[in-house]
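Need tokens for this chain, all 182 residues.
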Amino acid sequence: MKITKTVIDGILIIEPEIHKDYRGWFTESYSKIEFERYGIYTNFIQDNHSMSLKKGTLRGLHYQDNPKAQTKLVRCTRGMIFDVAVDLRKGSKTYGRWIGVELTSENQKQLLIPKGFAHGFVTLCDNVEVQYKVDEYYDPELDRGIRFDDPDISINWGVETPILSEKDKNAPYLKEIKLSFE
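Here are the structure tokens for all 182 residues:
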């Protein structure tokens, strides 16, 4: 397993070892022992799985507020996505900055997004499946979002007219929300 730090503290790119032969391939997509060997002590308790039919589907930016903020381990198991994390930790030197990584079923990269970040992705092809682990159960009372096109964040999603849910179309801007992350 290869773990790469990014320019934003806490965001990690995880590349599992892939064993290939004439039959196909095998990989351990998650191993608690391996993660702990790299100093990652997260107790994942739920797996989520989404499917997007059309290229240009944008889901996000989402986060769950304290006291049930979520760490996420995201991977694309069919197709490809541009996966984004935005730092929402007040006082962080990278507050409001974002990082984007292409996750595909071929490269099998994963993005570890700790508590205190908003998350979103856009599909880069049709029929995309994304799976992610979280360390807190979903709580609709703490479910939050930020506008995908917030000019203060300025994410380059690579799509002009994304396919959005009503919830994501109407999400507030970063400057309009009260954050509890330090």
